[in-house]
Queue: 2 jobs
Job 1
Amino acid sequence: MEEEGSSSMHARETSRLWRAWRTVHEMVQDRGYELSDEEVRVPLEQFKREFADDDGSISRAKMQFSARPSEAMIKKFTPPPMPGNPNPPSEAGTIWVEFCPEKSSIGIGVMKKFVQHCSANNFKAGILITAAPLSPQARKVMTVTQHYTQIECFMEEDLLVNITHHELVPKHIVLSREEKTALLKRYRLKETQLPRILSKDPIARYLGLKRGQVVKIVRTSETAGRYASYRLCV
Amino acid sequence: MSTTSTPVPRGILKKAAAAAPPPANATPPPREQQITLHQAQQLQRRLEEEIKPAVPIETFERLSQLPRVRRPSLSAARPSPEDAREFLNAVQDFLPREYSDLIEERNCLGSCGYALCPRPRRRYEGEWKVLKTGIAKTADLNMWCSDECARRALYIKVQLDNPSYIRKNGQMVIKLELKEEQAPIPQKPKDKVEKLVKKREQLEIDKKKQTTQDAAALAAERGDVGRLARQVEVTIRERSNVAPAKAPEPEQQDANMHLFIEGHKMTFGIDKDSNEDSDDDYLPATIRM
Ligand SMILES: [Zn+2]
């Protein structure tokens, strides 16, 4: 009886983790990192084989991966050359993703360890996926280190479904700095005149939008066909 | 506008430019400058005091590791003096919210939320827990190792919420003290002096209570109802009236409604009692009377 209860609990948790694992892979791929479709579309059975412990439960500590930015992404996030800096380095770099095994809420210590791991290995970005919310001070650690490593945190339950796969969510495309300048020039706008998207908006979090970036939103409409609108991340 | 009708604006500009510099750059009155400087400095100081810098993360880390001295003879009720001093000195700078953050940070590490307690926190399962005194949220209970520690931590929190200040090294700091621990055998104070002290303490407490009550009454009088409004149990029920709606009908006495003109009933040619009579018995009122 008890055996059965724990095994069904394992099954539920396994399925949850598998879904979060797939969503975070899709997210990283959508952001422009190099991930093959085989790496993204992992079947449940394979997932279990790779990450289950002897007792059948999934080990979050094993669930970690890194991904390199694609050529297109590197190009997109390279700032335009300036007289003083003819070859500016790209802002895109390797990303590190980790599932936090901590079950109760996440404190300063856990967060610091993650940030230190990211900076020690020269990761430009890090995503920590947790089962429990962050403590207020741990959240502060995350924002303090924002200027050298871009740290993001998601909760497992936020990743159970991929929101961008919903039919009512239009396609969002991040503009490069040059594209943004061209857009503002073409419509003779100041960037503050654009409509806005909050950086805490679920789509903005999915794409990892930073303040000041512009996202192009392509909708299909029965009456107008395809049309694009632009939003500035604030 | 009308005065600047001269077609050459150059003249005006020249005058202004020529007129402006001398008073500014000529020997400034030192006294006035001193006063201005003094006022600016005071303002600066006040701004610095009002916008308190956030407590550094390292302080939270340090305090969440307390107590540093762990010996079997020491407990939350009898912390080591060094730990108590460190805790009180640090928490003096805290905002109430930051104090709550510290408790949460300790809970993340599995420790009791009261910073001077060496024991781990409780770990009740489920959302609610039935106690002797009632029902409580497990999340609230799991912050502490015991109810005593909850009370000790609350004692600090109350002092941060309603701070009273003391002067220390020329600066005003929040007066903080640990909750007084009851002695293991708190029965009957032995001598009169002790009794008197107890009584005086009670008096202090009563006085404090009275002050808060007075403040609350005053606030209520001034219309600060938001914080004081007592919670009233409100149950919203659907009305169980299910009879079909009826069209309004004139009541019996208004059967002569059609005879009213602007609220005045015409009596000419009509008798009050003739309501039930048919038209056949029609008699002019004058005759009837
Ligand atoms: Zn305790």
Note: Residues 2-160 of chain A form a domain with the Dna-directed Rna Polymerases I, Ii, And Iii 27 Kd Polypeptide; Chain: A; domain 1 fold (CATH 3.40.1340.10).
Job 2
Amino acid sequence: MNEGIITRINGPIVEARNMERAGMLEVVEVGTERLIGEVIRVRHGGLATIQVYENTSGLKPGETVYCTGRQLSVKLGPGLLGTIYDGIQRPLDRIAELSGAMIRRGEKTEPLDMNKKWHFVPTVNPGDELKPGVVYGEIQETDSIKLKLIVPPSQKPTLVKTIVPEGDYSGEETLLVAENNDTLGFYQYWPVRKPRPVVARKQLTTPLLTGLRVIDAFFPIAKGGAAAIPGGFGTGKTMTQQALAKWSDADIIVYIGCGERGNEMTEVLREFPELVDPRSGRSLMERTILIANTSNMPVAAREVSIYTGITLAEYYRDMGYHVAIMADSTSRWAEALRELSGRLEEMPADEGFPAYLPTRLASFYERAGFVETMSGTSGSVSVIGAVSPPGGDFSEPVTQHTSRFIRCFWALNRALANARHYPAISWHDSYSEYLIDIAGWWGQQDAEWKAHRDLLMEVLQEEVALQRIAKLIGPDALPDHQRLTLLVADIVKNAFLQQNSFDEIDMYCSPGKQTWMLRLLATFTERSQNLIRRGAMLADINAISALPRLLRMKSEIRNDDKTAMANLEQQISSALDAIESNLR
Amino acid sequence: MKVAGLEYRGVSSIDGPLVFIDNIRGIAYDELVEITTPTGDVRLGQVLDVTASAAVIQVFGGTVGLSQEKTKARFLGSALKIPVSKDMLGRVFDGLGRPKDGLPEPLTADRRDVNGMPVNPYSREYPRDFIQTGISSIDLMNTLVRGQKLPIFSGNGLPHNRMAAQIARQAKLLSEEVEFSIVFAAMGVKYDVARFFIDSFERSGVLHNVAMFLSLADDPSAERLVTPRSALTLAEYLAFDLGMHVLVIITDMSNYCEALREIATARGEIPSRKGYPGYLYSDLASMYERAGRLRGGAGSITQMPILTMPSDDISHPIPDLTGYITEGQIVLERDMHQRGIYPPVAGLPSLSRLMKDGIGKGRTRDDHPHVASQLFAAYSKVKDIRSLASVIGEEELSPVDKLYLKFGVEFENKVVSQGEFEDRPIQRTLEIGWEVLKILPRSELLRVSEEELAMYYDEAVTIKSKK
Ligand SMILES: Nc1ncnc2c1ncn2[C@@H]1O[C@H](COP(=O)(O)OP(=O)(O)OP(=O)(O)O)[C@@H](O)[C@H]1O
Ligand SMILES: [Mg+2]
């Protein structure tokens, strides 16, 4: 094995000489404690710069650097689901067993339990063709997820010579031998910085249903899409991402806590096993992988954690699953880049960030997509990145560059958050370019879905303009039809946009309930506008006794309670009928 | 304490708090250094950057009086460690953990690296025990829970110290009879501030249960970088080794950040916002994250850092990055302070993120989360209506809006405002909350449930009508 000698230590950046044979992005072990690092710069004279994924305190010039000859990779195979990893795929539960509550550095563990036996069902026979993309076996990884073992992209085409019969096998065992004597088992490695290959990228036409009304109805994201949630501190980025991780209709969730709080990961870890997936009826943890590189963990590992996460996501995508990945927060990741770049004494661009920030952001978001996989199925990776702009100011570099690579922007608004209007997604500054792509899907649920959401959106936008005038002259000075707009907008905000993540019923809103709510609100809006135009008084509408029930329907009517829905609809409509009959 | 180590004579250059030494060997990154000045003073420092033959050292005691030739440096072979023991409660130390009260060093062989180690998120316990501070604006709307990190965002001249002292005095759990031990760290504050806290602890008879780490305004600025870490190292020992419940008060984080900026500038680092180094976030997190509870462990660390926002600007990097790390913030408002409201807790920007799991059914009272949410919603409307009233005049407001204005005043005077020595039980606080909500028409109260309205809103109304 090649070895080098440390010449300088500056925080997570270590320089070494005698590194002529070390490759770019090669993994190395640094010093007597063999801390894990990665070569990020190779220079004339055998000098190499290494970023170290652990605390370098106590490291000395003169200590050895051991080269490993491989790139930073993740281990793929059964046992990923339900696990919490650090940024370089060390399982934190194992680390806790080894080093106690505090993470000791230099700890080495297998990402997956190699002794565990899995029930393997072969899906090929001797003599069958063996080439990348072929599924050679299946394992029921959790009750809700069946793992497919797929021949890796690097395999030279050949034939199956032998394959083990159905049965229980553990990690190291060979499952398949090919004609050319290559062997396949449960596990494979994949370098994290390299996207896994696909056959083709497809159009995005299905929504990723989130159960959050403001997203699904107004700023939807498609399966395979990319979205950003920018917002100042405490505006609800984490809550929104957690809600998506809980309720979105992805098959698999990869949740990356990147430079954020330890307690937030703990919360997911404690809460998810108890929560039940509304679709599969199984524990949410069975479909979730957590990657935790909290703010107090080494900064270089923060940089790599999002690549680790997205590689795991692609692995499941390749089996034909729809995977959603949440990265909280990409700003902390960008700051890790900035810190490392600063220590490398690179020329800074905007606000000290390196000039390659946009390229790196693109290389992350571009890995989202709805694809035809090598195994002939369709799968998707949807990416949702939180952005934490300094001072909540969206003109800063990370927000600006990110918005070039995403098509869905959920802008969190400080004023809404302060008023405890959650989710504080602004209907003024947010947008989704996926709306047209997925409107067809909603059209199948309710032919007028698009018309309804457009009408309500229009009311909301009109209100913004009216509020400006109302602020000058007082709302009572406005004519009735404009005051109706204010009233309806208020109802839409309270009854529809606002959604309390802590309310047992309201935390998840099914597509069926959403289309019903939209229809009810749109009909109410249209009919009231009509009545006012025909001379009804605003006070009459204001006095409808079922209005409080309309405002509370989100938390008082269950997702499947058709009777209550019909009931409320009936009350509203007869109240409007009564006003109408008085007009005649 | 004498530790053998390599000693070097002479340094190659001195720049601000930094010393550069050449022709050295075998020095480790982060190693502790003992610098002896030409006059024989001994100061501590730390290796910030090291190559095979040279090192950059940050001197905690400051570089005043050092010379190129006569300065000596002895490398001590490990990172900065401080002694930890239960006997440190009731004592006063400097920022580096050396006694400052004239008493001897604590008797213990247990010395810990001040940088600590990151807690494994897998090993944390999610904090959920309600702490009653007796301050309504906190208990009702920005609840503190045991193991939370909740800073006070203040401004110069605002009563953050009085408020922190009140919290330290009154904080208790409803379910258990345990006292908080207090670890207090002061960086760059005036002696009066330290004195104020000492007196306040003394008066409430808890001084024996307080460990103080003081690095005051006239102490060298580099020492401020270690002070909070020393305090948290002791706190971790008390909480996680001995199972005690520790409240850590740190003041003033702004001074800490300035010291950090000074070092970064002296090293010629590329600054990010307002000259602060790009790693300010990670650096702050390495301290703030040292709060919480451990799974299976009895103890806890509750952190209450205080920071003064430069020109009351909450978007300044110090409060901004703090808010991104801590679990909420208590914001003090100058305007309320001028109007004589104590504590001047700003209604809208204040937030406690761990509140949701610490209150409600089985913890405080079932209606608590909804009452809090309703008060926030109503108070935010008050703010809008006040600005409308300032344009069109109060008389022009609708009757409901006028009620909101009344509600706003009552809210500030009854819920927020209270005595510095008034310890309000949460039940009383909730009662007051409903009292002010009753100013508003029933139909405006959408965040509380029908049952809650029937129970707390209608109840009183019917009593009144009976009279
Ligand atoms: N949908 C929601 N329902 C109820 N409460 C919410 C919701 N969204 C946010 N909140 C409240 O706002 C608080 C802050 O939200 P969150 O932690 O998600 O903010 P954040 O944007 O991630 O902040 P930071 O950048 O500091 O991590 C939560 O603790 C919760 O009290
Ligand atoms: Mg967050």
Note: The longest strand of chain B covers residues 42-51.
